Fold:
Amino acid sequence: MSNVALPAWLERAVERWKAVPGTPSLLFGVILPLGTIAFELITRMCAEALFDPLPTLFHALLVTLVPAANLLVWLSFRKPLLRPQWLAFGNGVAIGIAGFYSLLFLPLLPIAAIAILYFGIGALPWAPVFALLAAIGLYRRLRRVAAQEQRPHRMWPGLLCGILALIALDLPATLTRIGVRMATAETPAEQVRGLRMLRAVGSDDVLLRLCYVRTGRATDLLGFVFDMHSVMPEQVRTVYYRVTGTPFNAHSMPRNVQWRGRMFRDDFDFDQGSDDVGGQVYGLHLLSSRIDGSLDAQAALGYLEWTLVLKNDTSGQQEGRAQIALPRGAVVSRLTLWIDGEEREAAFAARGKVRQAYRNVVRQRRDPVLVTTAGADRIALQMFPVPAQGEMKVRIGMTVPLQLESFREGTLRLPSFQERNFGVDAALRHSVWIESKAALRSEGVDSQPVAAGNALRLQIPDSELGRGRSTVTAARTAGEVAWTRDSLDGSHVIRQTLQAVTTTAPRRIVMVVDGSAAMKRTAAQLAESVAHLPPQPELFLVVAEDLQPADDVPRASVADSASLLRSYEYVGGKDNTAALARGLDKAMQVPDSVLVWIHGPQPVLLQTSEAVEQRLARGGSSVRWYDVQTAPGPNLIAQHVEDLIQLRALSMADLDRLFASWQPGGRQFVAVRERIDSSQVLPPDAETSPHLARLWASDEVGRLLYAAHPARDAAIDVAWHYQLVTAVSGAVVLETQQQYDAAGLTPVPEGTVPTIPEPEEWALMVVVAVLLGYACWRHRATRIHAAS
Structure:
C-alpha cells in the first residue's frame, strides 16, 4: 500500500500529539499528588503519626499548585505553546515546592518503599518525589519545544518564588523554633535575647504545641535545617511562661501531637501520675459542679461541700488533676468519692503516706482520690481513673472561717480552680446554695435569695468563681464568744474570742513585685494602694525581672514606689525566686519586718528555691510573709516553702485592708481560739458546731510546725485526730478495706464526718425553735395568771 499524504493540519496535530508527554507524567505528576493531598486532608494520617505537612489552609493551597502546574504544562503540548514564559514560571514553582517536600520526606522513603506492599499506602510519602520527577521531565520537554520556537522560558524565577513562599508561610514557626533554641541556651544573656525575639515575632500556637510533646520534624524550611536536636517539653513550658506570662495549661491541648516518634491519641495524658497538674487533656471536662454550705455568722465560721463530677468522653481511662484555692484560712475536713453509686470516706494521714497509697493504687488502675495542700490556702486534687465514656464524682468538705471587717458582718469568698487539666464549658454554672440563721447577701452573678429561710442561691460561671463578686456576706450581732466541745477530750472545750486589735505599722516593709504580664491588670490598683502606705516605715521595693540585678536594694519613698509600679512595663513571665531572696535579705536585717509579695502565677522555677529556703532556715521564718496572687495559676515557690514559713495568703482587697490597718489608729479583727478546761463558765447560747474545734486544730498544726523548734510529728498527730488536710497531712479515698489495710490507713468512721444539714433538718430546727418559744410564752403566761 502506497503512503497516503495527510493534510497539513492533520500532520501538525500528529506532531503535537507526539510532543505531548505520556501517561506516566499525568499519573505521577498530577493524579498521585492530588490523591495524596485529599487523603491527608481527610484522614490526617501523617499529621497524627509523624508531622503535619498541611498545617494550614495556605499550606494546602500552596501544595496543590504542584499538580495544578504539572497539569497545565502537560495540557499545553496539545496545541501551540501559549505564553511559555508563564508556563516555565509555574513549572518552577512546582519544582521548588515538590523539591522541598521530597527533602522533608526523604528519611521515610526506605520504610515507605516496604510499606507499598501493604495496600499501597507506602506510595504516599513517595508522591512528592514522583511529582518532582514529573515536573523536571515536563520542564525538559517545555524547554525543548520553546527552544524550537525560539521563545523565552526561564524556570528559575518560579523556583525561587516557590521556595520563598514556603519560607514566608512558615516564617513565624521558623523564628519561634530559633527563639526557643536561644531561650534555652546556657547563658542568661542569650536566653533574654531569645525571649525578646519570641515576644516580638514568635508564634504562640507553635510554642504551645511544643509545650506538650515534640510535634515531629519541622515542616518549615529553616526549622528543618536548624532543628537538629530536641528541646524537651518541660523546657518549652518554661519558655512559654517567660514569653506570655501565663501557664501553658491555661489553654486547651493542641490536637494531633507526637512524642518520640510514636503516635498517640489526642486524649493521651503525658503528665499522668505526676504531682503536677500538667496540660489539659482532650475529652476530659467538668460535667457539673455544686457548692452547698451552712454558715454560723455568730461564731464567724461555716462549712462548705464542693461536689464535682468529671466526664471522660474518650476511649481510655483518664486522671483528673486540679489546684483549688480555698477561702482564706479554710481547711479541708472531708473527702468523699462515689464508687458504684456508694459514698466512700477518706483516710487522713501524713502527706507522704497518703501520696504513696494513691500511687500504689493508681498503678493497679483502681479508684482512689487524693487531696494534699499546695501552698497557703490551696489544695491539690487528683482523681483516677475517670472511666472511659464515664463519670467520676467527688466531694470536698472544707471548714471555713468568716473574714470580719467589723463585728456586724462576716464575709466568705468561695473556693475556685487555680489550675486544672480538664475543660470547663463556658456555659457551665457552679450552682451555689448557702444557708444560715442570719441574713445573707452576695454581689455574685445571678444571685437569688431563697424564699424559705435565710438562704442564698448563686449561679456562677467559672471565670467569676473566686473573684471579688463570688462572695457571701452574713449579718451578725455583736457577740464575741463562741465555743464547742472538744470531741477528742470531754474535759476540754474550744473557745473562740473575736477581738478588735489595734495595730501598728512594721518597722520595715519589703515589697517584692512580679514584673510579669499578669500584673498589668492590677498595676494601677497596686500603685494606688502603695500610695496610701504610712510614710514612717522603711520601704524597699524589689521588682522581679528577666535578669535580676546583683546590687543592693535601695530604700524607696512611697511616692516613688507608686510611680514606678504604675509606669513599669510588665511583659512575659518572670521567676521571682531571686527577687524574693533579695527581699528576705533586707527583711531579715531589722526585727518586726514584713515581706509583701505581689505576683501573678509562678508555674515554673528558672532556678531552684534553695536560696529562699536557706534564708528561711537561717532566721527568715521570723519575717511575716504576705502572699498576694493577682491572677489564677500555680505557685511553685509557695509549694516549696510551705513547710518552712506560714504564708498569709491575701487578695488585693485584703491587701488594701492590711495597708489601712498600718495607718495610725488602724485595727484588725482577729479570732483567738484556745483549748480550755470544760469547767469554765461559758454562755449556753454561744455553743456552735465542732467545726470550731477543727479551726483550732488547724491553728495548732501551724503553731507546732512553724515554731522555733518544729514538732512535725506532733503536728501530724493533731491533723490526723481532727481529720484535716494540712501542710503535713493529706486525705485519700481507696476502693476496698484491703487497700486501706495494705497502706496502713484507716478511713474516717461513720458519725465523725462533718455534714451540712439538709433543708428538712433546717425546717425541723425552725419548728422546734417555734415550739420552744411557744412553750416558754405559755409557761410565763401561766405564772403571771397564777400570781394575779
User: Anything to note?
Assistant: Residues 32 and 440 are 71 Å apart (CA to CA). The first helix runs from residue 8 to 19.
